[in-house]
Amino acid sequence: MTQASEQRTLTVPDGLAGERVDAAMARMFGLSRTRAADLIVEGLVRLDGHDVGKSDRVLPGAVLDVTIPSTVDPLEVVPEIVEGIKIIHDDESIVVIDKPVGVAVHPSPGWNGPTVVGHLVGAGFRIATSGASERQGIVQRLDVGTSGVMVIAKSEHAYSVLKNAFRHRTVDKTYHALVQGHPDPLQGTVDAPIGRHPKHDYKFAVMADGRASVTHYETLEAHRFASLLEIHLETGRTHQIRVHMSALKHPCVGDLTYGADPKLARRVGLERQWLHAVKLGFTHPDSGDEVEYESTYPDDLAAALEVIRDAH
C-alpha cells in the first residue's frame, strides 16, 4: 500500500533560535513533539540539507525540509470486492453471507486485510448506518480465522431488532468444530466466564472475573485423533468456542493460539482452527418468519476432516 506524503519546507524564524529541532518542528508544522521526533528518527527531516538529531539546535534562517507521510486511519472502511465472500440471502432488510477464512468482519487497528464491511460497500450494498462507522450494520462477528454464515443488517429497523435478538440470545448459532481427542462426556455444557488473557492481550482465557459464557456441545463423529462436534452458543464472547474447547483440553484442530498440536495441524494441512459457522436461525426482522441459513464446509476444512476420518 503506497502512502501519500507531504513535502514541506520552512525557514526557522528568529523567535525559535536555539530551540531543539523537535520542539521547533512541533511549533512550525503543528505536530506533536513525539511525532516530530519520530520523523527525525525515520530520517525524514533535513536542516540546511543535512540529517539532524532531535536534540540538535536550530538557528534563525536555517531551512527545515520535512517529509510528512499521511497517516492512514486504521478504521477507515475501504470499499473492495473480496474474493470468496458468498451472498446466501439478500433482501430489503438483511444480507446473509458465507464468510471465508482470512477476512475480518470490520476494520480495526492492527488489521489491514480485507473486511466484510469493505466488501459490501464495494459491491454496492446499502447497509444500516447504526453502530460505529467502521462497524455499521454489524450485529454479530466471526473471527478472521473462522469461516461460515453471518447476517448483516441493511435497514435501521433490522439492525435494532437483530441487535436485540443477539443480546437476548434468541438467535440459534450452530457451529461445527473438529477438536483434538474425545471430550468426556460426549455431550455437555461448558459454563465458564471468559476474559482477556492476563499475559497476552490477543488471547482470551477462562477467568474468574470474566464475562458469563455458555457453550453446549455434542459429538457427531469420534475418530482416532479428533472428534467432530456440533456446538450451540448461548453467549457470543470473542474466541468463546476456542477458549472453552482449550479449557477442556480438547482444542480445535489447527488452533495453535490455544494449544493445538502443530504436528497434527501439519498432517491435516490446516493453517487455522477447524471451526465453521454452519447454521444461523432467527426471526426475520421484517416478516416475523423464522428463517434459517446454512453454509457448507470450505475446502480446507473438508480436506482436513477427510484426513482425520481416514486415519487409523
TrEMBL record:
<dbReference type="InterPro" id="IPR006145">
    <property type="entry name" value="PsdUridine_synth_RsuA/RluA"/>
</dbReference>
<dbReference type="InterPro" id="IPR006225">
    <property type="entry name" value="PsdUridine_synth_RluC/D"/>
</dbReference>
<dbReference type="GO" id="GO:0120159">
    <property type="term" value="F:rRNA pseudouridine synthase activity"/>
</dbReference>
<dbReference type="GO" id="GO:0000455">
    <property type="term" value="P:enzyme-directed rRNA pseudouridine synthesis"/>
</dbReference>
<keyword id="KW-0694">RNA-binding</keyword>
<dbReference type="InterPro" id="IPR002942">
    <property type="entry name" value="S4_RNA-bd"/>
</dbReference>
<feature type="domain" description="RNA-binding S4">
    <location>
        <begin position="19"/>
        <end position="86"/>
    </location>
</feature>
<dbReference type="InterPro" id="IPR050188">
    <property type="entry name" value="RluA_PseudoU_synthase"/>
</dbReference>
<protein>
    <recommendedName>
        <fullName>Pseudouridine synthase</fullName>
        <ecNumber>5.4.99.-</ecNumber>
    </recommendedName>
</protein>
<dbReference type="InterPro" id="IPR006224">
    <property type="entry name" value="PsdUridine_synth_RluA-like_CS"/>
</dbReference>
<dbReference type="InterPro" id="IPR020103">
    <property type="entry name" value="PsdUridine_synth_cat_dom_sf"/>
</dbReference>
<dbReference type="InterPro" id="IPR036986">
    <property type="entry name" value="S4_RNA-bd_sf"/>
</dbReference>
<comment type="function">
    <text>Responsible for synthesis of pseudouridine from uracil.</text>
</comment>
<dbReference type="Pfam" id="PF01479">
    <property type="entry name" value="S4"/>
</dbReference>
<dbReference type="GO" id="GO:0003723">
    <property type="term" value="F:RNA binding"/>
</dbReference>
<comment type="similarity">
    <text>Belongs to the pseudouridine synthase RluA family.</text>
</comment>
<feature type="active site">
    <location>
        <position position="143"/>
    </location>
</feature>
<keyword id="KW-0413">Isomerase</keyword>
<dbReference type="Pfam" id="PF00849">
    <property type="entry name" value="PseudoU_synth_2"/>
</dbReference>
